[in-house]
Write a structure and sequence with these properties.
Pfam families: EcKL. InterPro entries: CHK_kinase-like, EcKL, Kinase-like_dom_sf. By secondary structure, this protein is of the alpha+beta class. The chain contains 14 helices and ten strands. The protein has a five-stranded antiparallel β-sheet with strand order 1-2-3-5-4, sandwiched between helices. A three-stranded antiparallel β-sheet has the order 6-8-9, with helices on one face. A hairpin with a 6-residue loop joins strand 2 and strand 3. Helix 3 crosses helix 4, helix 4 packs parallel to helix 10 and helix 9 packs across helix 13. The longest helix is centred in the last third of the chain and has 25 residues. The chain is globular and about 70 Å long.
């Protein structure tokens, strides 16, 4: 048994004691989602005890080696443990204090415990898959039902962060440092990915994208993440693989946001562009792009109102539209960087080794990535960005 497995077993014993699962039987099944997760080993866990319902748990144990961590300097595991153990509790207290109806509260997964030891981090949560939830197929463009529901949940997260900034301004300001993600160290890695994706761009659009990238240099790219008129606690990796969904018996869709490893203080438009352009195809955006943006702003206003915050005061529509115009090009850049990873076949995912560095994660775009990417570029020509 590895050190991490021993730590997980020890953590599960603590959880069993805390929840009165005496002399329980523990079943552990490790699995991988391949391309949907590059940073963790995943585990389905069942705790069984006489006279009690089985406790279905889900655990993530870190697999990112020290070499890659030193290159990225992203404290992704610490960030996610902070969200579930501290920030989420404060969000839930705010929802309770403002009498937000249960159906309008942020849908989240229950936190059971964690191990914070460096390189051996473990996070234990409730197992949503045991309740009928599944991850949306990342190889398919999402439909309106899934996209609108996901954006509704995103609006709740952003609204809570805005309310948090008003109620606890000092704590919010401290998050600028705590949640900071410095991408300077991965500049060469990002350039490698760009070079690979540029090879599949069609015709004269390659020249247009090249000219755009010359204008939007690395320092300009970083500015997209800088909050301007309304900073929020952004998810930072808001894509289909980080959402779980199920359809209830009454036909209503439920969506739960997961994987808060890239949480950061940023611009709300960043999460929107990230979601739309990594998870949809050209046909979906032709029908729903502007509709989805309007839906987000409406749901954000509704969520703020339920938290007793005046949306016209903290984030009027003209501010949203101004930021949208400025941040919109981010969707093009994030497509160039992420679509090869989002659409990669499971069989082509590189297994991380202790000697790997960040550049080993660069993926050659497949046919689906090329199709999606060229569709994004067509959109940005129509939007007047290219």
């Amino acid at each position: 048994m590895s050190d991490t497995e021993q730590l997980l077993c020890s953590l599960l014993k603590t959880i069993a004691t805390e929840h009165d699962y005496k002399d329980c039987e523990t079943k552990l099944q490790s699995f991988s989602t391949e391309a949907a997760n590059h940073t963790s080993q995943l585990h389905h866990i069942t705790l069984s005890a006489t006279g009690k319902d089985d406790l279905k748990l889900f655990a993530k144990s870190a697999i990112v080696n020290e070499n890659i961590r030193a290159q990225t300097q992203f404290e992704i595991f610490e960030t996610e443990m902070f969200f579930y153990s501290e920030l989420l509790k404060q969000f839930q207290e705010m929802e309770k204090h403002h009498n937000v109806p249960t159906e309008h509260r942020l849908a989240t997964v229950k936190f059971y415990g964690c191990n914070r030891e460096h390189l051996k981090e473990i996070l234990v949560l409730e197992d949503l898959s045991a309740q009928g939830f599944d991850i949306y197929d990342r190889l398919k463009s999402f439909d309106w039902n899934h996209a609108s529901k996901a954006v509704t949940e995103l609006s709740k997260l952003h609204a809570l962060s805005i309310a948090y900034s008003k109620e606890y301004p000092e704590k919010f300001d401290a998050l600028y440092t705590k949640l900071h993600k410095d991408i300077d160290n991965i500049k060469s890695f990002l350039q490698i990915i760009i070079n690979k994706t540029m090879m599949v761009i069609k015709g004269e659009n390659k020249v247009k994208v090249g000219a755009f990238l010359q204008k939007v240099q690395f320092d300009e790219f970083k500015k997209f993440h800088m909050p301007s008129r309304r900073p929020v606690i952004a998810h930072g990796d808001f894509r289909a693989s980080n959402l779980m969904h199920r359809t209830r018996e009454d036909g209503q869709l439920e969506v739960v946001i997961i994987d808060y490893q890239m949480l950061q203080i940023s611009n709300p438009i960043v999460d929107l562009m990230y979601f739309i352009f990594t998870g949809s195809d050209e046909e979906f955006r032709a029908k729903h792009y502007h509709q989805l943006l309007d839906h987000y702003y409406l749901e954000l206003c509704n969520a703020l109102t339920r938290l007793d915050v005046d949306s016209n005061e903290v984030y009027p529509k003209e501010d949203f539209e101004c930021e949208l115009k400025k941040i919109q090009p981010y969707g093009l850049i994030i497509s160039l960087l992420l679509l090869p990873m989002v659409t990669v076949d499971d069989g082509n995912v590189r297994k991380l080794d202790v000697t790997d560095d960040i550049n080993d994660l660069a993926i050659n775009p497949n046919e689906l990535a090329a199709t999606r990417l060229n569709g994004v570029i067509n959109d940005y020509v129509r939007l007047g960005v290219l």
